[in-house]
Specification:
Elements (H helix, E strand, L loop, with lengths): L2 H14 L9 E2 L16 E12 L9 E12 L3 E5 L13 E5 L3 H21 L3 H9 E4 L4 E9 L2 E14 L11 H11 L5 H12 L5 H9 L3 H6 L19 E6 L5 E5 L4 E2 L1
Helix pairs in contact: 1-3, 2-3, 3-4, 4-5
Length: 275
């Protein structure tokens, strides 16, 4: 699991809310379909991040290529109508709005569900709203292995139909802890902070990622999953051992003295030395 996976689910959920014909009946947690069978039942979308996988090379956990199965569950439990807005004609007169009815039959339920599925695709790939835009920034690509399934059930003689569509997506890599926030993550947290329910999460994630602030050489170690010994052997760690856990950048070398017995004495600008 990763922060990027959660961010993709949150953005998909927020992008779809009030952007399709189901209005605000979009949820990001499991919904019991039988709860949709009451007199006020309306078409519903549920967004879930399910199983995923990572392809890890060496110890690079944060930047490893990974994917998540993003599931969209759609439910219809009664006859519904869709209002087609009035069209403005060249003559200057508005044509009346049309009311399209979807009856309480299996065929009509499927037609209605397919309409909702199309709306989901249209929002995620082309809606200009900030949450849909952020979703597209967080998703590197959709992977080929997508799928869907349709089903029906009943309770107390009342029937509901559903479609479960699953997209496998590749999210961006998680940020390295201790590094400055990238523009992407900063924009995401600003967007979340404007939503009361998401503001606490944005504050928590921002603090988690940016605390503590690490110097560049320690960020390099965290990015690659290297030990200090490995980092030093590559010439990326400070020369002086006493700086191995300093929060600040290592002091620049002031001098290197070579003596006849082939010992090198390193002196840094802060007064530290090593042989």
């Amino acid at each position: 699991m990763s922060l990027a996976v959660c961010a993709v689910r949150i953005c998909a959920y927020m992008a779809l809310k009030n952007a399709t014909s189901v209005a605000d009946r979009v949820f990001d947690s499991v919904v019991d379909p039988r709860a949709l069978l009451g007199k006020d039942a309306s078409p519903t979308i549920v967004v879930l991040a399910e199983q995923g996988k990572k392809i890890i090379m060496g110890r690079d956990l944060l930047a490893a290529e990974h994917s998540v199965d993003l599931a969209f569950e759609m439910f219809v439990a009664k006859a519904t109508t869709i209002t087609i807005p009035a069209a403005h004609t060249d003559s200057g007169e508005d044509e009346p709005a049309d009311i399209i009815e979807y009856a309480a039959t299996d065929a009509a339920y499927e037609n209605r569900l397919r309409r909702i599925a199309y709306e989901i695709d249209a929002v995620l790939t082309g809606d200009p709203g900030p949450w849909a835009e952020m979703f597209r920034r967080l998703v590197v690509r959709f992977l080929p292995d997508a799928g869907w399934g349709r089903g029906a059930d009943s309770d107390g003689g009342r029937k509901f139909n559903f479609i479960r569509e699953i997209y496998s997506v590749e999210p961006v890599a998680d940020p390295v802890r201790g590094a400055p926030l990238s523009e992407l993550w900063s924009d995401l947290f600003d967007l979340m902070a404007a939503v009361p329910d998401l503001k606490p999460l944005s504050l928590d994630w921002r603090s988690l990622i940016t605390t503590p602030t690490l110097p560049a050489w320690r960020l390099a170690a965290a990015t690659l999953g290297l030990t200090y010994r490995e980092l030093r052997s590559m010439g990326l760690a400070p020369v002086l051992d006493h700086q191995a856990t300093d929060a600040a950048e290592p002091a620049m070398l002031a001098s290197v003295t070579l003596d006849p017995e082939d010992f090198a004495i390193y002196q840094d600008a802060a007064g530290g030395s090593a042989t």
